[in-house]
Amino acid sequence: MNHQDTAAALLPLLGGAGNVRTVGHCMTRLRVEVADRSAVRGAELRALPGVLGVVEDGESWQIVLGPGTVARVAPELERLATAESPAESLAERGATLRERQRARNATPGKLFLRRLAQIFVPLIPALVGCGVIAGVTGLLANLHWLPALVPALSAIASGFMSLIAVFVGYRTAKEFGGTPVLGGAVAAVIVYPGVAHVAVLGRQLAPGQGGVLGALGAALLGTVVEKACRRVVPEALDVLVTPSLTVLLPGLVTLYGLMFVAGEVSAAIGRCAEWLLANGGAVAGFALGGLFLPLVMLGLHQALIPIHTTLIAERGSTVLLPLLAMAGAGQVGAALAVYVRLARDVSVRRVIRSALPAALLGIGEPLIYGVSLPLGRPFATACVGGAFGGAFVGLCHQLGYSVGATAIGPSGWALFPLLAGNHGLGRAVVVYGLGLLVGYGVGFGVTYLFGVRGPGPALSPFPGGSAPGPPLLKRRSG
Fold first, then answer.
1. Which of 79, 99, 183, 314 is deepest in the core (most CB within 10 A)?
2. What residue spans of 192-304 are helical by DSSP H?
3. Would you kindly state where each structural domain of the chain is located, as residue ranges?
4. CA distance 12 to 18
5. What tens digit of pLDDT does each residue of 21-58 get?
6. What does the alpha-carbon distance between residue 386 and residue 34 come to, in Å, rounded to a whole number?
7. Per-residue b or e along 153-192, where b marks 16 or more CB atoms closer than 10 Å to that residue's CB
């Protein structure tokens, strides 16, 4: 199906136009918030051609379509969903069900992580684009190629990162119910060069001090002040008083307290990451590489974006991302083992062939929801492969050969242009590449030995022939 047909097929399965409240997407998932969960036909969604997986998350549904496809289907679905006027009765009933479901399932921690992800996910395309350009710029500078072009590329790559606090403030205010531009205005104080003339307790502030954590705190405080002003300021004065106080009061708090505190927290995150890998690199890498796939499955991996961004701002690179990328290597190795063992299962092998290129570039959700998670055991053995790959990279860090990423977004092979290390790009590439090979090899070997019970299409790794998870793979018999 083309993108229009896919959107048209999804809409009735989601309960129709009147049941769709919002439509959004990340790199691989279509995120649809519905009014009435019972109106969604989940089994038919999972069976729809092109759908690689379906995840229920509170009042929203996450439909895995894969990179590229989801960015084209989302606007088509949104157009179809808004083309019809929702029925008033359905809207009222949906609002009631939505509030009931939210009160039943939404814990404070889960809501916070979900909102945190919503702040940063829209920023990922810019982070990826600027990161790739930064990697190319660093490569040209190291090789002394095109020296006249390097400053221009550096400016292009660094412009967004130098103002990322403004974008984080804008998104934070929007997510928490404030005026987005006021959130950006408050957060802009952090990156304004003039803060260098401000002294707090005898110490001069530095532009950018506190980074994205400071921007988050400033915009949150601005949203609280704005909402309070809306309640007490007379309407005749609201247009002047509310914006002024929303910028002034949080701005003063940011300058005389929040920037310092957020800066200390950011520095502590960097020191903690360095200490963790320097003193327990293999163990830490094993844990991080082994646990990352479950986080991706639950959509909680986006909550790590502020940590990565903080490490890049503080240390120039994030040492955690190469470790976490090993989870994708274990996933690739596991998928290859399934491909070899189930030589007669045409449907499984077709899914693996279509999802493998994206997985090699670090986008593992198509393989997670299309192969390993429905089969069950390959998901666990993929985690083992990721754990050993992470242990290798962590051990190298512990031995003095650290590798980090100068930007976030890409993973797998796509991370090579973004690597940096304390012994130069060449050794960083070698360490990371060997880590991928360890993840591939262990993921393949463990899955080949324990992930499936034997060759043939009618075999299941679970007693009774049924696997947990969505019925995405139709097994052939005979």
1. 183
2. 211-232, 235-253, 259-298
3. 3-106, 122-266, 316-465
4. 10
5. 888 887 788 889 888 888 888 888 888 888 888 888 76
6. 35
7. bbeebeebbeebbbbbbbbbbbbbebbbebbbbbbbbbbb
Q: What is the DSSP letter of 16?
A: -
| β pairing state of 20-25 and 29-34 | antiparallel
In tens, the pLDDT along 150-172 reads 999 989 988 888 898 999 999 99
Between CA 332 and CA 352 the distance in angstroms is: 9
Q: Which residues on adjacent β-strands are paired with residue 395? A: none
C-alpha dist (Å) from residue 231 to 26, 218, 222, 228: 35, 20, 14, 5
26 is catalytic: yes
- Dump pLDDT digits (tens) for 380-400: 999 999 999 999 999 999 898
The residues that bridge with 405 in the sheet, in sequence order, are 318, 419
The structure's pTM equals: 0.69
CATH class in words for 3-106: alpha beta
Task: Show the tokens assigned to 280.
Answer: 């327990």
Q: Reduced to 3 DSSP states, what percent helix, strand and coil does the chain have, rounded to the nearest 5?
A: 70, 5, 20
Catalytic residue among 26, 130, 229, 396: 26
How far is Cα 117 from Cα 120, in angstroms, rounded to an integer? 5
